[in-house]
Design goal:
Its main location: nucleus. It comes from Anopheles epiroticus. This is BRCT domain-containing protein. It is built from nine helices and twelve strands. Among the domains are: 48-102 and 113-193, 3-Layer(aba) Sandwich (Rossmann fold); 227-314, 3-Layer(aba) Sandwich (Rossmann fold), CATH 3.40.50.10190. It has helices at residues 48-63, 71-78, 106-109, 119-128, 159-167, 174-183, 235-247, 277-285, 293-302; strands spanning 11-12, 93-96, 132-134, 148-152, 171-173, 185-186, 197-199, 204-206, 227-231, 251-254, 268-271, 289-291. Helix content is 28%, strand content 13%. It is of the alpha/beta class. It starts with 10 loop residues before the first strand and ends in a 21-residue tail after the last helix. It is elongated.
Amino acid sequence: KQLPPPESNISECSDVSDGYEEDVPVPTSPETGLDAVNGVQPELQRTEQESELECMRLANEYFGSDRILDSDLLNQLLGPIPNNAKTLFRNKHFLLSCTVPSKGTAASAKVFANTPFVKQHIRLQIEAGGGKVYHFFEDVPKNKYKQCKLIAPRPSTTAMYVQCLASDIVAVSHEWIIQCCQVLMLVDHKPYVLPAGWSFLENRFIDWSCGRAKDKRPSATPFVSVCINVASLCKDFNDFWSRVCKLAGGTVRLIKTESDITENLTGYLLTDQEFPEEIKIKAARNGLLVVSTVWVVQCLIMGRVCHPSCNEKLTQIYQEDDY
């Protein structure tokens, strides 16, 4: 049996994050992240047990119900866990996200990866390579955003994907992790970068990268100089969507009662279905543009502020087939 090369021989692409990394206090991990808030796709494989169930399902699908999915078969299907490779993902930070793609939509037809996505296996691959995997977006220190990557099987609108889009933490296919583990070197991640998401306004996937080209987003922070008034009776809704809008450069104010709607307010009213209708009506009369979470996500994907009148979905509550 051929042994893997010693750790000192593992080659890596040069990266500014490969240097000495100072100890920075890590934020206190919340008991639960804001990953089940209204307006996002559900996060799957949230626990190790759920990943194990996915492995059992894959074993039945690929090898038949009579086969036990041992480590050799698992590595064959999902890619190897590297040995003696503690510098492979050194000083690299990661988040993981997956969901079920919406069925019957143009967005769901495109295939982004041929290898199944199992969070726990990917976590083991990254950690065996010396990388750091965070369970919640809230865990990632802000000064690590540039060294962090979101690993996912395809673009989505999970809470994790939306927050990474707002903070420009690039989303990369898990097949990049697999390729790195197979060759025991940090290959260029750019060919594996996932789109920002599906724009139903243009009926296409929008590239993650920003630039002046037609197929690129104009900006990663589309809400700069934009006032967004967040209005919901749900604390998680207010907390999550306020964070997203701020990460994307917006100025955020919370609207709790009708008295908060004043004549000097400008911008947009981001709200949900449960918020009192009379307050929405007053806001609209005062010149605020009433929008839904779908508007926020589309603006992030497009990299620009979309006028809510250009599509009725931008003012309606999120539906599963929106993406």
